[in-house]
Amino acid sequence: MDDRTQITHRFAVVMCADVVGYSRLMGIDEEGTLASLNAIRRDLVDPRISAHQGRIVRTMGDGLLVEFGSVTNAVQCALDIQHGMRSHLPALPDDRRIRLRIGINLGDVVSDGDMIYGDGVTVAAHPESMADPGGITVSRGVRDQVRDRLPIAFVDRGEHEIGDIARPVRVFGVVLDGVTANAPPRRRASARVERPSLIVLPFENLGGGGEAEHFIDSVAEDLITELARARWFSVMARNTSFTYKGRTIDPREVAREAGVRYVVEGSLRKAGNRVRIGCRLVSGESGEQLWADRLGGTFEDSFDLQDRLIERVIGSVEPVLRVTEVARACKKPEAERDVYELTRSALVAAFAETPPDNAEALRLLAKALDVDEGYPTANALAAWCHQQRHLMEWCEATQTDRQEAQRLARTAIARGPDVPLALAVGGAVCAMLTRDHDAALAAVDRATMLNPNAAIVLAFDALTRAVCGDYAKAIAHADKALGLSPFEPLGYHAALAGAFAHLLTGHPEQALPLAHKAVEGNRNFAFSFVVLALACARLERAPEAAAAVAQLVRLAPRFHLARLRRIRFADGERLQADLELLRAAHLPE
Fold first, then answer.
1. Residue 84 and residue 235: Cα distance in Å, rounded?
2. CA 464 to CA 392: how far, in whole Å?
3. Helices (H), 470-560
4. Per-residue pLDDT tens digits for 72-102
5. By CB atoms within 10 Å of each CB, which of 8, 146, 172, 390 scores lowest?
6. What is the mean pLDDT of residues 547-569?
């Protein structure tokens, strides 16, 4: 994100809409469904939004996010769309008919220009998920604003806990020809989940003077802002953090007072014009130092020094926290884990890329989704697991894995508009298994906008772009991911994406070292050996290409050329020559 981008808060009316049974429809007829959706957008939805002075903020394959300045306009627009849908495509049978669900909320949103996010969007997405096919649900505030202005009735759907919203939200269904009035109440959302929390203490100025004091305060403030982008853990606000300025206090005492699990602290030393900044991540429970690093520079370009420090800290702290939280979750008895802990305990197995690990991850994620079927990260990880089982055709694979992966990925994207990891992994699965590359790219665009310095997010963004044919950005984001964090366990996805993009842009000599890095990152990940074999073959190193294929076949005996055809590469025709190279290297048909 551009440093000059202004973050603003405002009150807005937000409408979310999605397609009911999108994954099933795409599985029946992918091209026909996309064509029908485009026609509905062109002929019905977009004109109605425009007529009611709405602004389309974001589109994803199966959904829309729209902002209005008027509650009445938003509700009337939703009514017009749902009534119009009843006469659209009347000749289609019920199992092929496209139906929309719509949710509307009014509340505070955060904007960085065109995009909006925050609680106002989160609450709008929840009523939308509760709407009946062809129905509309609204928050209480919307109901109160329009109940005397529009000739419509509402049915009370009760109070619901929504993500990290502090108070339950009361939801109402709009009565459309009596349909909603008789609808059964939806399942109450899961209880509020306690996320891990962190505080960034003001850095110590160990003899640096006034210029250094201003610098380290700016560093702490930027760290608070950037760490908060991760979204899966909470960060204490600046006002709380800076109450500790000038105090020498044990991190464990800070953690007890502030009610946090982790503490980030640092210091600055100055010698002449040179400075050295140290930074540490400490467990608030044990006082153990989980990570530490230092960076040197001068004040001649303090902005560059500050940017490098922020990137290094963000790139290191987030993966270290993730690994620590996984270990913490796994130590807890499984029966006592909440949805967050079940999802964290499945993370390592989800990307281990072996059949037993895949099965274990899906078991844990099924338990998480039983607790909260809309939990974005659990949906994204389960989508990845089903995708890998489908592509690798492990013994446990089923005929529904592809469709299930698509459904889970779209749920992750729809239910996690503010969850970067869910958007990034969900986007990668959509890119590989569907032709809806626009939705995949929109998901990873949003993920990197929300958290531009997370190596794991950039890695899956790069992988998505490599599949979708956006090779320049795939290479740039892969390079950034690899440079950000040597601690990122899933960084090999970035190496794989960069290698693949270099191959398809005619640079096998640049692809080869990245392919080796991908293989070393996870020797169970079959696709790394595919790219390694291709790079060697392109460089006319036939024995090395054959050796890479032999390793692949030993690792995954069922992996054949046909598996690669299951991936929806944007440049499928260009890959035909590569398939011939793999065939020549003895990869079975």
1. 45
2. 19
3. 471-484, 492-504, 508-521, 526-538, 542-555
4. 899 999 999 988 887 765 556 666 778 888 9
5. 8
6. 81
The pLDDT tens digits for 462-485 are 999 999 999 999 999 999 999 887
Q: Mind giving me the DSSP string for 324-371?
A: HHHHHHHHS-GGG--HHHHHHHHHHHHTT-SHHHHHHHHHHHHHHHHH
Q: DSSP assignment, residue 150?
A: S
Residue 207 CB: number of other CB atoms within 10 A?
Answer: 10
Phi, psi dihedrals of residue 352, rounded to the nearest 5°: -75, -25
With 0-12 / 13-18 / 19 or more C-beta atoms within 10 angstroms meaning exposed / middle / buried, residue 257 is middle
Q: Where are the alpha helices (DSSP H) in 95-208?
A: 119-130, 140-146
Q: For residue 117, what are the contacts with CB-CB under 8 A and spacing of at least 6? A: 109, 110, 111, 417, 418, 450
For residue 404, give the H/E element and its range: helix 401-415
Better-predicted residue by pLDDT, 411 or 562 = 411
SS3 label, residue 115? coil
The closest alpha carbon to 527, from 348, 427, 361, 384, belongs to: 384
Q: Is residue 156 helix, strand or coil?
A: strand
Give the angle subtended at the CA of 242 by the CAs of 240 and 246, to the nearest 5°.
Answer: 140
pLDDT at 181 exceeding the cut of 50: no
- Diameter of the chain measured on Cα atoms: 80
Go through the domains of the chain in sequence order and give each one's CATH number: 8-182 (3.30.70.1230), 197-309 (3.40.50.10610), 338-452 (1.25.40.10), 462-483+491-589 (1.25.40.10)
Work out the angle between the directed axes of helices 492-504 and 526-538 (0-180°, nearest 10). Answer: 30
CA distance 369 to 377: 10
Residue 362 in contact with residue 401, Cβ under 8 Å?
Answer: no
Phi/psi of residue 64, each to 5°? Answer: -135, 145
Half-sphere exposure of 27 (CA within 13 A, CB side): 15
Does 354 score more than 50 pLDDT? yes
The model's pTM: 0.69
Which pLDDT band holds residue 49 (cuts at 50, 70, 90)?
very high
d(CA 490, CA 337): 24
Amino acid at 82: Q
Answer whether 24's CB lies under 8 Å from 134's CB. Answer: no
Ramachandran area for residue 173 (φ above 0: left; ψ -120 to 50: alpha; else beta): beta
Neighbours of 213 (CB within 10 A): 15
Mean pLDDT of all residues belonging to the chain: 84
3-class DSSP assignment, residue 45: helix
Q: Is 71 exposed, middle or buried (0-12, 13-18, 19+ CB in 10 A)?
A: buried
Query: How, if at all, do strands 169-174 and 234-235 pair?
Result: unpaired
Per-residue pLDDT of 270-302, as tens digits, reads 877 788 899 999 999 899 999 998 888 877 777
